[in-house]
Amino acid sequence: MSRGLDDVRVGFLGGGAMGEALAAGVLAAGASRERVCAADPDPARRKQLEQALGIAAGSDNASVVEASDLVVLAVKPALVAGLLAALGGPGERALARPLWVSIAAGIPLTTLAGALPPGARIVRAMPNTPALVRAGATAFVASASCTGADRALARTLFEAVGIAWEAPAEALLDAVTGLSGSGPAYVFVFLEALSDAGVRMGLPRDAASALATQTVLGAARLAQETGRHPAALKDQVTSPGGTTIAGLERLEAHGFRAAVHEAVAAATRRAKELGGPAA
Q1: What pTM was computed for the model?
Q2: Is the CATH code 1.10.3730.10 the one for domain 183-275?
Q3: Which CATH class is domain 10-170?
Q4: First to last CA, the chain
Q5: Average pLDDT over residues 107-119
Q6: In terms of C-beta density within 10 A (0-12 exposed, 13-18 middle, 19 or more buried), how is residue 54 classed?
Q7: DSSP string, 210-234
Q8: How far apart are CA 127 and CA 181, in angstroms?
Q9: Which stretches of 120-226 are DSSP H helices?
């Protein structure tokens, strides 16, 4: 990791599933429970955070901001403006002290900067749901006011729950949304179809599901750990005149590759529509 979290006070505004996952990652990366806190309006979520992670969780956003060096904005996008306004907005100088990391989908840096004091250091990030099992893929972009140390700290935060990539331009986060943000859903559909196909060919449901899940997991791990191009790994499995090439021919005939391209493109377009122009 780029920088340790053991000497950083981290606060979460929003204690939903993603906020909890990031908090768990922070603790696993070396932060002490005394240095991690959260705020959430739901008493049940606060109780969950306290019991599962052993961190302090209350309902006062301002106290979390005051107690933190890094504040993770982990609320629904529609709640961001109201939350920041209630904290005091651009006129509250104390809001300029911590590093702000927003995982609110579709909220651009310009919007966040307009709701915080001038010079506030802001990172906008797009994690995905596998972060819940510390296998996430996150892209982030930092505002011009962020230092190298700020960017390193953001990277460390997200590497605690998977891999992290710093995008060279905010506009690329729309493509990230289309690829890795929405991508788990595409994989789940493929996984379901693969399992169903096994059942159709006579396999018991539990065996088909287990084999399909392990196949997807193993293939992804093989690609990640070997670093080889997916095409090369595909060719390794594909013997001349064999079973795999017969199956691949059917996938191509039914537009599998083109459908994936269209899915990512459609999700990217929708992300642009929802978020408006990026800074």
Answers
A1: 0.92
A2: yes
A3: alpha beta
A4: 28
A5: 95
A6: exposed
A7: HHHHHHHHHHHHHHHHH---HHHHH
A8: 7
A9: 148-159, 172-176, 183-200, 205-226
